[in-house]
Write a structure and sequence with these properties.
This protein is an alpha/beta fold and about 300 residues long. The chain is about 30% helix and about 30% strand. It contains ten helices and 15 strands. It has a six-stranded mixed sheet, with helices on both faces. Strands 1, 2, 3, 5 and 6 form a five-stranded antiparallel sheet that branches. A four-stranded antiparallel sheet has the order 13-14-12-15, with helices on one face.
Length: about 300
């Protein structure tokens, strides 16, 4: 088994929210501790405000933790940040390249600040950069969303990083670009690049080697996609039929139900232990047992977390 390339130990950077509770990273007294293995695709899933971007910025040495330590590629994120930045790539959630430079100029600039050239490391970005290379003379600000993300990823890779941090890299881009990007990520991981990625898409999360569910600055679960689905604590059913509002009201009135939420054209309903699924049946209603997905697991875990008083 490969060695950890990221080690966080009781990491904490918090601040009060308008609601009166702490937000950020490591909101519990013991902070946040975890490790990521070399060559792993490590996914972080959580709602807005969970602390994902704050965590990425700490690990990239852009924010200083209040407590705890973190090491990335062997370097302390505070004391050795200059060396650290030479061996990581970071793609933030918003487009942060130079809009008044062309596609080619952006790539050359990022190669130069890391002491390399596009020619020397072109093979690292060929699979994704070749898709936008026909537009190399176009200003970056004029690119489509998918093309901007491909350029940003190329710039993050051009200096051959050991660890790549991607903060929701496919949000707002078309499905084909999403597929292309994830093909590149899997190829990079096969070559030994460690990838830490946050995503709002559960089908993408399922492609990670391990997933961390993040809520209010803490990991509420961390495991492989398969193990997380197997940990689902209830029997799960898809229920549909008739007036959706009336059906939802009826389901919420059944005490044997642990949770119910809309899922496409159906409702996903979790029954408590030893409950009889016949309680779900009614005239005009279709009930079918289903296996839990990553999204089902995340929803039931996040709903079980009680908010701070």
């Amino acid at each position: 088994m490969s060695q950890p390339i990221i080690i966080a130990d009781r990491l904490s950077l918090t601040y009060p929210s308008p609601m009166g509770y702490q937000v950020g990273v490591g909101t519990d007294p013991e902070g946040l501790s975890f490790a990521v293995r070399e060559g792993e695709i490590f996914g972080v899933i959580g709602p807005d405000g969970a602390g994902k971007s704050t965590l990425f910025r700490i690990l990239c040495s852009l924010l200083k933790p209040q407590k705890g330590t973190a090491r990335v590629a062997g370097y302390d994120v505070v004391d050795e940040y200059r060396r650290l930045r030479n061996c990581i790539g970071y793609m933030p959630g918003t487009f942060s390249l130079y809009g008044d430079l062309t596609v080619e100029e952006n790539l050359r600039f990022f190669a130069s600040i890391f002491g390399t050239t596009v020619q020397e490391n072109y093979h690292l970005v060929r699979d994704i950069y070749s898709q936008i290379e026909p537009f190399k003379d176009r200003l970056a600000k004029s690119l489509s969303g998918g093309m901007k993300q491909k350029l940003a990823l190329s710039c993050a890779l051009i200096h051959r990083p050991q660890v790549l941090f991607l903060d929701e890299p496919t949000t707002g881009i078309d499905p084909i670009s999403r597929v292309d990007l994830w093909q590149v990520l899997r190829s990079l991981a096969d070559q030994g690049v460690t990838i830490v990625v946050s995503t709002a898409y559960m089908d993408e999360a399922a492609q990670c080697h391990r997933i961390a569910f993040m809520q209010r600055g803490q990991f509420i679960a961390l495991d492989t996609p398969q193990a997380l689905k197997q940990s689902y604590p209830y029997a799960l059913y898809a229920v549909s039929g008739g007036d959706r509002l009336a059906l939802l009201k009826r389901l919420r009135s059944i005490p044997e139900i642990a949770s119910v939420y809309a899922f496409g054209e159906t409702f996903h309903v979790s029954l408590k232990q030893e409950a009889d699924p016949s309680v779900l049946q009614a005239e005009g209603t279709t009930v079918a047992p289903i296996p839990p997905s990553i999204e089902d697991t995340f929803l039931v875990l996040s709903h079980s977390e009680k908010p701070d008083e």
